[in-house]
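Justification of resources, computational component.

The compute hours requested in this renewal are based largely on the per-chain cost of generating structure records like the one below. Each record pairs the submitted sequence with a full structure-token output. That output is archived, and it is also reused by downstream analysis tasks.
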Amino acid sequence: METADLIVIGSGQGGVPLAADFAKEGRKVVLFERDALGGSCINYGCTPSKAFLAAAHNAGRARLAKKLGVHAQVEVDFPAVMERVRGIRHQFNQGTKRRLESAGVQVVCAEASFADYHTVTAGDVTVEAPLIVINTGTSSLIPNIPGLADTPFLTNRNFFDLQELPPRLLVVGGGYIGLELGQGLARLGSETHLIVRGDRLLAQEEAEVSDTLAEAFRQDGISLHFNVNTEKVTHADGVFTLTLDNGETLQGEALLVVIGRKPNTSTLNAAAADLELDSQGFVKIDDQFQTSSPGVYAIGDAARQPAFTHVSWEDYRRLKAILCGERRTRSDRVLGYAVYTEPQVGRVGMTLEQAQHQGINARCVTLPMAHIARAIEWGHDLGFYQMVVDRDTDQILGATLVGYEAAELVHVFLSLMEAKATWRLLEQSVHIHPTYGEALPSLARLLIGDDMPSCPNM
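The structure output for this chain reads:
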């Protein structure tokens, strides 16, 4: 049996920097990884998907430029697109490997499980340490649809291994992964259908977000099927056939299933360490990431933290500070995130409904993209900017931006909220004309006056 100062299980965006930092300080660190180094972000999440969307959105923008008087004939070299995606993925993966090696981290490429409170085993390696950090992440949740398991369906895990553009794509799921990859293939040339169990896209967001994206998808020629479930899947002669519960059938050469995520904890042998999991298998933690087992911590989405790379990375900083005696908690920073459809969705903080549910005397204002000079000039008039504020303190509580490069602009609100600034500071700012950012002070100026409605109609 080996001994170490720290064991890290999983090489996600929280576990890698934590392991590297401790190793650089001269401590013995062992990191267990059963799969590719870098976790889901680098290998089948953020990195390949955004490289993929770079090509897809450029193709889509070229086609949509006809309203500007520009008529483009777009030819997509799909194998070249995917070769570039995989090349970037490999580059980032190797960068993670070099980082761990240069820091002196011992990497064990095998599936880890607990032998007892402070002992982890994988393959023929057994390590004991007083400090263990779980960073195992999540993977695709596969629905129990009759016939599905016997077909070569896609998830975000194997999507980026595609070699040829499928003429027709079927997407089961209306969350952000399905929307990004579905719109991406549509813009590269696939006839795309989205099958959504509920009545709108991105059901966790405000209805205005869903409606805007639905209109954008229709403009891309994507067919949307709401309030339906898939009853059966068959695959023959390279074609998937989906039977829906409304009596309709759909066919396509590719099927992407993206209905949610499940935690990668089933093989940890949690019982051996008295490690408590919730009903869905996520690791239970307190506000300082401590699990039910002394000396064992969990970070990232395996611990039901928001499933974003930047959250996992901040979890690493939070936990490291906690271990050094500082006061940090699992949710002590303003949460922002984005969806990389076109138009993009940038979100930070609370919606009006969430604020009112907490008993806050909140109000919101909305500025349509069609009222913004830059958006009109560039033909990006689909979307809106919305801000939620506290009537009593004037503090900014949240923002929803739907529009061109909204994922970049939302950082203005994120920084203002982290600084606990009021909307009046934004209103007083003079932003450059003509830019999209110029509209943010304009949005704040809608709050001037006592007779403002709670939230103006869009």
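The chain has a mean pLDDT of 96. Residues 78-103 form the longest helix (26 residues).
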